Amino acid sequence: MKARYKHASEIKVGVIGYGGAFNMGRMHLQDMQKSGMTPRAVVEPDAARLAVAAQEFPGIQTYANVEEMLKKSDVNLVVLITPHNTHAPLALKCLKAGRHVVCEKPFAITTQECDAMIAAAKKSGVMLSTFHNRHWDGSIMKALEVVKSGDIGDIVRVECHMGQWGKPGDWWRSSKSISGGILYDWGVHLLEYSLQLINSEYTEVTGMAKRGTWAPLTKWKADTIEDEGFAVVRFKNGVWLTLCITQIDANPKRGMVEVTGTKGSFVWEYETHEIIVKDGEKTVVTKGKNPPPQWHNYYANVAAHLTKGVPLVITAEWARRPIHILDLADRSAREGRTLKAKYG
């Protein structure tokens, strides 16, 4: 897409959703402001949260619904900070109104939703992206450095795992229909990491799921997310990927991600890592801290894309890749069979 604006300040941003979990509305507006963009509007049905937004950003426009903002505001970039199942319908509404859109991750829940959003963005000639700030986490940047160095050889497999033992919290992320399922929340981050590491298209996905342990004890009951979700992804170059997110793990595994190569392994948690290499019969283990994250790169890139035509790093097509895996894994678990990928 060609550059639309001469200066980043001409990008007038609005967020849909303010407050709630992690103060994400404020964080997005502050980060966009640091990149030179202009905070302009907040949409939030909770009047108390709107009052907080008005206090934290004096002069900002406040609206109770999206339709009112699209009708009355000159916002040209909208950020969706809402539950997962609302991303597609809200994005389509904004895209059709000719506004650029950034969705909080996950991009959407289904591949079909992603396709509809991408088509709408192309038809309106606007930008569509997902806030994959963790694309610039220190852990993945270190992993990419180690893989590129050749220290662990060629990648054979990537294993992603997050687990604990315990009932999920009583919030919307524990609802299957709202969140997409147990794999969607942290799984989309782990897949985004993995897709940076594995330089190949994926060809098929197998999914498995266990249900019923915690459902009777949760607010959502019949709609509660799975106890455990598991996916295996096969890539065209022969590499494979596993993803496991679980609430029934009595024996948590070491490392959030483990990259196994032909010469050794790279294992990481969010802040630390280990490089394990075989030197003859000897095993050499190097431990270290990951570099600090560079999340500011996300909105800096968006601003540069809209003002200078710099290529967008997190394109809508890139954001669709992990969602297609999650969608196929969910369908595979329900149907009991491996599914071929349409997009790799």
Q: What does this 3D model show about the protein?
A:
The chain folds into two domains: 8-134 and 296-315, Rossmann fold (3-Layer(aba) Sandwich), CATH 3.40.50; 135-293 and 324-340, 2-Layer Sandwich (Dihydrodipicolinate Reductase, domain 2), CATH 3.30.360.10. Helix content is 33%, strand content 25%. It has helices at residues 24-34, 47-56, 66-72, 87-96, 111-124, 138-149, 176-179, 187-197, 296-308, 316-335, and strands at 12-16, 38-43, 61-63, 77-80, 100-103, 128-130, 155-163, 202-210, 228-235, 240-246, 257-261, 264-268, 272-279, 282-289, 339-340. It has a nine-stranded mixed sheet. Strands 3-2-1-4-5-6 form a six-stranded parallel sheet, sandwiched between helices. The longest helix is centred in the last third of the chain and has 20 residues, at 316-335. The radius of gyration is 21 Å and the shape is globular. The two termini are 23 Å apart. The mean pLDDT is 95.
Classify the beta-strand content into a percent band. 25-35%
Architecture of the largest domain in CATH? 2-Layer Sandwich
> Number of DSSP helices?
10
Estimate nothing, just give the exact number of structural domains: 2
Would you tell me the overall average pLDDT?
Answer: 95
The CATH class of the largest domain turns out to be Alpha Beta
CATH topology of the largest domain: Dihydrodipicolinate Reductase, domain 2
Approximate shape = globular
